[in-house]
Amino acid sequence: MSHNTGSIRIAEPAVLPDWAARSVDLANPRIGAKALYASDDFFAEVARMLNPEPAQFVPGKYDDNGKWMDGWETRRKRTTGHDWCLVKLGRKGTIRGFDVDTSHFTGNYAPAVSIEATVSDSDDVAALKDAKWVEILPSTSLSGNSHHLLRANSDAAFTHLRVNIYPDGGIARLRVYGQPVGVFEGRGDELVDLVALENGGRPVAWNDAHFGTAANLILPGRGINMGDGWETRRRREPGNDWCILQLGAAGTIEKIEVDTAHFKGNYPDRCSIQAAFVDGGTDQSVITQSMFWPVLLPEQKLSMDAIHSFAEQIAKLGPVTHVRLNIIPDGGVSRLRLWGKVAR
């Protein structure tokens, strides 16, 4: 049962500090994260809290239990204790911090949160309840309709989180900013996608992302639709659009795939890729340097809605850490795959 009146409101994105901007969201379901258990999720199921899309508020939308909320929301607690949930991270990783987002939760947000972490081979709830948990975010006060960017206090790597709210209430979104670890262990000399999000790749910078974000380029699988890629506005001046990506580990690239899935009247005419081994510096300094990086893939003609594979055209630059994808002059690309061998 649901009905809508009025216009849907979309949460504003968080302004990310450097430690978060340079991280992967380890709680993204698209790399395998999932909510495993909640002590209570009467008003809004806990899985919604991990949705990579920004939280929405839909005026007038109700279900059988009450007002529909886009997040995790428990009932009003009438006993002692507090509510909590278990989250499996998409990849084992070190955690730099969190965005605990209470967007659209005003009279019903959780007043406080703490987060514990553990390492487990099992997703079994009973086993996880008995696991040894380490507190990585002490109890912290929350406010309504806000992003809370909070630092973790551990350098260790973890696989699962226990999120405690005191005593009850709602969280719209949980982002877990960190870096996957051990992704390439035991992979030998096999070709791996060095830039994939699940392997620790991340978008560093881009000149425009009007219709779709650069982060979509490195998501798993092929694009779902035209919105599931990186697409720039129509360029009305000379030059070309670009984005810079950091690999999950330094490596030598041997095969490149540029996928224009769903882009038909708006794919780039051509593309090229530059690359470099970057040691130190900041994201801002990388942008400046990237103009002078050597060419990894010379300009190549692209076509609509197709996977373009390149191998013999790739320059032998040795190990690199960053690439700059140039699209000429503008348009949309769904996915970029950089198959190569990790530098040992």
From TrEMBL:
Its EC number is 3.5.3.4. Pfam families: Allantoicase. Pathway: Nitrogen metabolism; (S)-allantoin degradation; (S)-ureidoglycolate from allantoate (aminidohydrolase route): step 1/1. GO terms for biological process: allantoin catabolic process; purine nucleobase metabolic process. Keywords: Hydrolase, Purine metabolism. It comes from the Bacteria. Residues 32-180, 200-342 form the Allantoicase domain. The keyword Cytoplasm does not apply. Gene3D superfamilies: Galactose-binding domain-like. GO terms for molecular function: allantoicase activity. It is an enzyme of class 3 (hydrolase). It catalyses: allantoate + H2O = (S)-ureidoglycolate + urea. The keyword Hydrolase applies. Belongs to the allantoicase family. PANTHER family: ALLANTOICASE, INACTIVE ALLANTOICASE-RELATED. This is Probable allantoicase. It comes from Aromatoleum tolulyticum. The lineage of its organism: Bacteria, Pseudomonadati, Pseudomonadota, Betaproteobacteria, Rhodocyclales. The gene is alc.
